[in-house]
Amino acid sequence: MLQHSWVILLLPLVGTAVISILGRYLSKLATSLVACGVVGLAFLGTVAAAVQLEGLPPRLQAVQEVLFRWIVSGPLHISFGLLVDPISLLFMLVITGVGFLIHVYSVGYMGEDKNFRLYFAYLNLFIFTMLLLVMANNFLWLLVGWGGVGLASYLLIGFWYERPSAVAAAIKAFVMNVIGDVGIFLAIFLIYLSFHSVSYNRVFHLAYTHPAAAGVMTAITLLLLLGAVAKSAQLPLHTWLFDAMEGPTPVSALIHAATMVTAGVYLVARCYPLYHLSPTGATAVAVVGGASALLAATIGTAQTDIKRALAASTMSQIGYMIMAVGLGMYAAGLFHFLTHAFFKALLFMAAGNIIHALGGEQDLRKMGGLAKRLPVTYWSFLAGTLAISGIPGFSGFFSKDELLGQTLNRGHVVLWAVGVAAAFLTAFYMFRMFFLAFSGSYRGEVHPHGEAPRVMLVPTVILAVLAVVGGYLVLPGVWDLIGNFLAPAFSHWHGGAGAVGNPHHVNWLSMGISVLLALAGFGVAYQVYHRRAWQPAPWPFLSQLLYRKYYFDELYDAVFVRPAVRLGAVFGAVADRLVIDGGVMGLARGVRTLGNGLVFLQSGYVRRYALTIALGAAAILAYYVFWA
Amino acid sequence: MQGSPLLTVITFLPLLGGILLFLVPRGRVGVARTVAMLFALADVVLTAYLAWAAHPGASFQFQERAAWLPSFFSYHLGADWISIFLLLLTSVSFLVSIAASRGITQRGRAYLFLMLLAETACLGLFVSLDLFLFYIFWEVMLVPIYLLIIGWGGPKRRQAATKFLIYNLAASLLMLVALVWVGIQNAGAGHDAWGYLSLLHLHLPAAAQLLPFLAFALAFAVKMPLFPFHTWMPDAYAEAPAPVTAVLSGVLSKAGLYGFLRLGLPLFPAAAREVWPWVAGLAIIGVIYGSLIALAERDAKRLVGYASLAHLGIILLGIFAFDLQGLEGGVLQMVNHGVYVVALFLLLGMIEERAGTRDVTALGGLAVRAPVLAASFLIVALAALGLPGLNGFAGEFLILLGVFRTHLWLAVAAMLGVILASAYMIRLLQAAFHGPRAFPGQGREMSAWEFTLMVPLLFIIFWIGIVPRPIPAEVAPTAHHLVAQVSYAPPSGFPGGTGR
To answer: A76 pairs with which residues across the strands?
Structure first.
């Protein structure tokens, strides 16, 4: 499988093609089988590839294959090629593994939708583009995958395209992601002009043998960061993620929680040799991540829509990962990516079960008392909540603790403080959500259905198990399986030193404080929300500020969107019609007035124009033939 | 006459078909259209053969030459790879546009004759190796388009057509003066006055190049169009029937760019170098200006027209970067732009046919009834906004790389156009297809015929997007040559910004 990894990549594309071309001839069952089947096969292929790769000596654990030449222009050579190494494999496993579970879940969730086939065509397309993103062996095809996941995300956010809110959310996500694409676009130009190549191998090598100016490296890393923040919904390009919740809930689980939004983490991890050369760029990454983690956590405490609250938590958790990779703690960041994929996909799927049972209701204020009615969902959501809150024994505890402990070990006290503060808020808003949904009595109007069908529950339960046990891959002071798995990837090029932390270097202080704060967050949430009726927050200004997400949307709308449209309208109506066109037409009229005797020139008769041209040309010709 | 008459056949076959159309009885528009399509199809086959038979290199191949007025001008045709790709674009665009003209029932034969005449004019322009011949084709082109707008256009067709004609004629009259002057210089050096190949060796003194260059450039700029010479464009695009708008934007706009490539740069290199900041400045203003108007425009055809203004501006930036990648990307993007803009205008025609309006605020929800139409429009719109993996991206990438290398900030400014493109194209897509349904009943799915028309265009969009290599590779020798002719010394100190 390792030598033919293109098969893994191509499988979901085949699924998309089959469903979109033959869709009308396929039953829903056949569509589900094709869509889930190709992703399942891709997962098996990825597992086989992973096993094979583990069998190779560490220095050979980067298998490349070049498939065709994309463009050749002078010295510019860009090929399409794939790279399979531990970093890409980790992502491939999550994309196809968690992706498969979410495909299965979708069969139930989208079962009644009239565009069932289109949905799966899009979902397979997403898997294909996301695999392309992490498997490409050069920056250009990374960008192709990058744009592709943006497209798939756009299509699925706007899937219910008859809803105006979904349409608005979709275009917002698309345009903000294109801003990020442009960052990568420009980074590629700088990379090519500095290293005369866009393939990872050559660029990462030449970055050390033929270093570029420090300013150029900083520009490259900051431009890549621009791409990362747009895709991973980090400050300041995060606003689209909340609106992206307009998409079907399994889409939120797959694209806007587990995989696509972590592409920024992948990008920084993939480019570790470049970030190693630019301390400024790396610091910017870490600061953006830390700030996003904290800011999003505060937003999460005030949301009333269960999916938007989860979106805030996604932004916050990705903030942790971005902070970690910015600080060079790549293994810790990627470990958190893995556990987050489990527990966040789980939380979204559990939320999807609730929404399913309540006939589309997403407002936490209209939930409550669901524990009895949805027992499986209740326990699953609890597992996810415990995991994300960092309660010892659950997966999030291990990854977050690894991350925060290393941050403190490396002396980044401020970022560490930001991280534990966000950890407190995380526990608070998650248990707030949990109590609002499950404890007390039911506050909604619609009569809730029972538990979701089995096709939805089984994937939920599998992820719940993973969310509990997934953390034991790294047992502090004992073993670090993730670190061992990833270590070879960080030895291929320079700059990977310190990427994998020392498992025996446990920071008990950090662990103690973060566990205490998590319990405190739980306690506060218990006090305020357990078995209580919904009550508005005591500080209206603050809660409104948080509920409105610090007014970023309003700000961008007032500063960028509306002025651009207004400027366009003014250009179109005034500048174009009155000034330029009016000027030209005025000139024409002026000429006509001046040359009243030659007015026949503007008769509008084509034959007369033709005659004029011919006569003029003949006269000129004649002049030179006979007199010159 | 020397050589095989392949280019003559390719050029005049449509015209021959157009004349033969009048043998078809008056009422049988369907038959006439079939005949027209067969001739257009034959031309596609012939241009494809041409591309297959051509060998690599910068030289002009398939040359044909017949003395016409000895020592003045001759009937001289020839094609290099720039010409060949534009011939392919022209023949495919015209075939698809003629095939999409089913809605034209009034005076059908005349309409088809004019379309075929326009095709001959465009093809002839791209293979002329004599400046006078070039000029004839250049002017002949105006006549059928003018008549097509006035005869089959929308309510304000008369005004739009007249403006189109006067604008273009006024600009090309200046070109005629310059052309005569250049001919005199060439004749003075003992050559055929307007023989292109001899003109290449004329090497006009740098000081004398500026005025004739400006005269030529004005004609090219109007034809493209380039900001601020574009105001004929929104009206003409809006009023012309959809297939005419398609060729107007897809093919005729390339005539202006081709003029810069074939004449502007090689004949007046010093002047081109001298005025590039002005050209590039206008181009980049056009990119931002056109994009912003497209963001606010309500008429879908005018919207795409302004978008096109922006995209053509980026191509011109690439050409005037005097850089290998910029030039190769420019030619690649000429083909790409042609393909997606033809598809866009034809699809807009289908939308208008269904909804009875082009006002984006009055459209909506078409995807419910017409998912295949929606999917086709989506792919074309994505190509137009430069989604990586589709054809528009490949050209944009090369162009902007070339521009970035030579004039960093211009490329950064052009990126603003890329961002805005995503906003206005997605806005257009959503306005037409998404949201609540704006008009009841209507909005049927694409017919099999309509879909068939889109298939070749969609195929090219994917093909060039995934493997764009052949176009820049074949154009490379010519592009090398052009860069050398403009003898542009790239600024040495990267990253030093623009270097001049």
So the answer is: A73
Give the pLDDT of residue B368.
82
d(CA B133, CA B142): 15
Burial environment of residue A160 by CB neighbours within 10 A (0 to 12, 13 to 18, 19 or more): middle
Q: Which of A72, A606, A628 sits opposite B469 (nearest CB)?
A: A72
pLDDT at residue B426, rounded to an integer: 93
CB-CB under 8 Å, B393 with A584: no
Do β-strands B61-69 and A479-480 pair in parallel, antiparallel, or remain unpaired? unpaired
- Kindly report the average pLDDT of chain A as a whole number: 88
What is chain B's mean pLDDT, rounded? 89
Cβ within 8 Å of residue A53, ≥6 positions away = A2, A61, A63, A84, A85, A86, A89
Instruction: Say if residues A318 and A422 touch (Cβ distance below 8 Å).
Output: no
Cis preceding linkage at B495, omega within 30: yes
Residue B234 half-sphere exposure toward CB, CA atoms < 13 A: 22
Residues 179-208, chain A, touching B (beta carbon < 8 A)? 179, 181-182, 185-186, 189-190, 192-193
Asked if residue A464 lies in contact with residue A385, where contact means CB atoms within 8 angstroms, the answer is no
**pTM assigned to the model:** 0.91
In a domain, B179, yes or no: no
Identify which of B76, B81, B30 has the alpha carbon closest to the alpha carbon of residue B57: B81
Q: Is residue B52 part of a domain?
A: no
Structure-token pair, residue B54 = 């051509």
Could you tell me the two tokens for A319?
Answer: 């903030």
The whole-angstrom distance between residue B256's C-alpha and the CA centroid of its chain comes to: 8
The total number of residues written for chain A in this structure: 628
Interval A525-532 mean pLDDT: 83
Q: Select from B86, B43, B42, B84 the least CA-distant residue to B61.
A: B84
pLDDT digits (tens, 9 = 90+) for A305-360: 999 999 999 999 999 999 999 999 999 999 999 999 999 999 999 999 999 888 88
Q: Distance between CA A111 and CA A99 in Å, rounded? A: 18
* Chain B 462-481, residues with CB within 8 Å of chain A CB atoms: 466-469, 472-473, 476, 480
- For the cut 80, the answer to whether the pLDDT of residue A535 exceeds it is no
B437/A162 touch (CB, cutoff 8 Å), yes or no: yes
CA distance B234 to A265: 45
Q: Is B152 within the bounds of a domain?
A: no
Which alpha helices (H) appear in A28-138, and where do they start and end?
28-54, 86-109, 116-135
**Residue written as token pair 């699809």:** B347
Residue B75 is assigned to a structural domain of this protein: no
Which range of residues forms the domain containing residue B357? 275-500
Output the CA angle A532-A538-A544, nearest 5 degrees: 110
Place of tokens 């275009």: A171
ipTM field: 0.90
- What's the number of domains chain B is made of? 1
Q: Which residue has the tokens 């209206």?
A: A540
Higher pLDDT, A399 or A584: A399
* CB proximity under 8 Å: A 444-473 to B: none
Listed residue (B191, B183, B188) closest to B133, CA to CA: B183
Residue A66 host element (H or E): strand A63-73
Give B156's contacts (C-beta < 8 A, 6+ positions apart).
Answer: B235, B238, B239
Instruction: Establish, for the pair of chains A and B, how many residue pairs have beta carbons separated by less than 8 Å.
Output: 178
If one counts every other C-beta atom within 10 angstroms of the C-beta of residue A439, the result is 19
- B401 close to A (CB below 8 A): yes
Give buried/exposed letters for A225-239 (b at 16+ CB in 10 A, else e): bbbbbbbbbbbebbb
3-state SS string for A340-353: HHHHHHHHHHHHHH
**What is the separation of C-alpha A372 from the centre of its chain, rounded to a whole number of angstroms?**
35
Instruction: Determine which of A515-519, B417-421, B492-496 has the lowest per-residue pLDDT on average.
Output: B492-496
Cα separation, B154 vs B173, whole angstroms: 28
